[in-house]
Design brief:
Order of helices and strands: HHHHHHHEHEHEEEHEEHEHEEEEHHH
Low-confidence stretches: 526-538
Number of strands: 12
Radius of gyration: 26 Å
Largest sheet: 6 strands, mixed
């Protein structure tokens, strides 16, 4: 139990804002050593579940900052079930030949599961999202976040294998079976030694390959043509669920900071932006229905002499709402828009509202948002002229899901943006965790990413995953950077979910093989003489 808890805590420690990415494979190794064995499958599930709780509880407290501990504990418990399933699968496939590979695919399978079910899944806490500063980051351009997670898990499995086979080797030289008159001894020692070397090579090769792949990442300035982008961080009157009770003040803050940037541009203190990006919820007043908001945003666009991507809450005729990003110009007003497609359950909407409202007084605070459709791309005419720019948008929660930017890049996105609002999560680690996801996406698709957040941290990220600029939290700010547009696509962008599907199929096949082997072994009467002369199949 202690080992399971330690494994989970090491996984947590590998995530931002800490840069201890190398603890992730160590945590996976300890978890594998804890659950791997010949005991019952439910034992593997139990230890895995315990490790999951030690991982998710400290990772996700921001989900309960303003709504109490029930949602936080409930979500952590649900996610821990998948780590428990991983523990069960390790106990099942951990005796197959080449088991480190099958164990790593088992992690991929369970990570896909919790990223998909229930209610669309919750991908937060995928191993990949703790690797933005690590050696494994370049794997993202080959197979996206799933391949990064697999590489981390495979390294951890290699560490576990080295420990298992090393212990077996030590026993083989210290038992009566190692005596010279036992011909099996020399053969077993040779096999064990070869396995130890193989495990050591696995542990070294996987991360070092990531280091070598880094040379293939695009340079920050590589691209077809540059544009100048501004990200506005206007801040909010107060944190918490009631951050938008002063909706006009939130809008005014972003208008004010945009006008301050316009004055800096006029004074030659800042570059003229081609496009300005406001965060999610920067206008919770529906500007399509409210003439004051409409006029204020239009004036801001006129002052800055550039189109603005406005994060707005739009009210539909049936009183539902959409979380939208609208292209706004001084001359034409609202243009193309992206309606958030992947909306957050228990936040932007409440599934089974009548049931869940019995568990929290905050249940009825959940919104009535409906998902949009489309490819996630909006087109903007740059202030400096030239061809329109295709901007891929993943609003806040969407960035955690692989398909959001996959669709946008396939639709021709040349640069990406993540407008977000974290005012409802206080002074937590949430914003740093989300920033790391954006860095993974930059490498995955070979695109610069602009992160615009209400209260921080906003950032300019280049296609190699590096942060070119970033703001502090809770400080109104404007970032201006010249970033390249890119049309080249990475292998990850071209093949999409194929790597994850292959890994899941391999895991499922290994599970079937292990079950078949287990039944065959249990059904075959044991030969006492054969058993007596056989070493443990480590």
């Amino acid at each position: 139990m202690v080992a399971a808890v330690v494994a989970g805590l090491l996984l947590f420690a590998s995530f931002p804002p800490r840069t201890l990415w190398f603890l992730a494979p160590v945590g996976i190794a300890i978890l594998i050593l804890t659950v791997r064995g010949s005991g019952r499958l439910r034992g593997g599930f139990g230890y895995g579940f315990l490790a999951g709780m030690a991982f998710f509880l400290p990772l996700l407290p921001w989900t309960g900052i303003y709504v109490g501990p029930v949602p936080w504990i409930g979500l952590s418990t649900a996610l821990s079930v998948y780590v428990g399933l991983f523990g069960m699968l390790v106990r099942l496939v951990g005796r197959l030949p080449g088991w480190p590979l099958w164990v790593a695919t088992a992690w991929s399978l369970t990570e896909w599961g919790r990223s998909s079910f229930p209610f669309g899944g919750f991908p937060w806490g995928r191993l990949a999202f703790g690797q933005a500063d690590g050696w494994y980051l370049p794997y993202a351009m080959l197979g996206g976040a799933p391949l990064v997670s697999f590489a981390v898990a495979l390294t951890g499995a290699g560490v576990a294998a080295a420990a298992v086979w090393g212990r077996a080797f030590a026993r083989s030289t210290d038992t009566p079976q190692a005596r010279p008159n036992r011909p099996r001894s020399g053969r077993w020692r040779l096999i064990s030694w070869n396995r130890i070397v193989a495990a050591a090579m696995l542990v070294a090769i996987v991360p070092l390959t990531g280091v070598i792949l880094r040379t293939a990442l695009p340079r920050p300035e590589d691209g077809n043509r540059p544009i100048t982008v501004a990200a506005i961080q206007g801040s909010v009157p107060r944190l918490g669920l009631d951050f938008n009770s002063q909706r006009r003040a939130v809008l005014d803050n972003h208008v004010k900071r945009t006008e301050e940037l316009a004055k800096a541009v006029a004074a030659g203190q800042a570059a003229q932006p081609d496009v300005v990006i406001w965060p999610e919820n920067s206008s919770d007043i529906d500007p399509l229905r409210n003439s004051d908001a409409y006029a204020e945003i239009t004036q801001a666009s006129r002052d800055i002499k550039a189109p603005i991507l406005v994060g707005a809450v739009l009210v539909n005729d049936d009183r539902t709402t959409t979380n939208s990003v609208i292209v706004w110009t001084a001359d034409g007003g609202p243009g193309e828009r992206h309606d958030k497609k992947i909306i957050q359950p228990f936040g932007e909407y409440l599934p089974y509202r009548g049931f869940f409202r019995h568990f929290s007084e905050y249940a009825d605070r959940a919104g009535y948002f409906v998902p949009g459709n489309g490819d996630g791309v909006v087109h903007v005419q740059p202030a400096s002229g030239g061809a329109p720019v295709a901007i891929g948008v993943a609003t806040c929660y969407e960035v955690a899901f692989d398909r959001a930017f996959e669709d946008a890049v396939r639709a021709g996105a040349q640069i990406l943006t993540v407008p977000s609002n974290n005012a409802t999560f206080g002074k937590s680690e949430m914003t740093y965790q989300q920033l790391a996801m954006s860095r993974i996406r930059a490498v995955e698709h070979g695109r610069a990413v602009v992160v615009s957040v209400t209260t921080g941290v906003s950032a300019m990220i280049t296609a190699d995953g590096a942060i070119q600029q970033q703001t502090e939290q809770f400080v109104p700010a404007a970032l201006v950077a010249t970033l390249p547009l890119r049309t080249e696509t990475t292998l990850a962008s071209r093949i999409g979910p194929a790597p994850e599907r292959i890994l899941c199929i391999l895991a499922a096949a290994a599970g079937v093989a292990a079950v078949t082997r287990r039944r065959t072994t249990n059904a075959t009467p044991a030969d006492p003489d054969a058993v007596a002369g056989t070493l443990p199949a480590e």
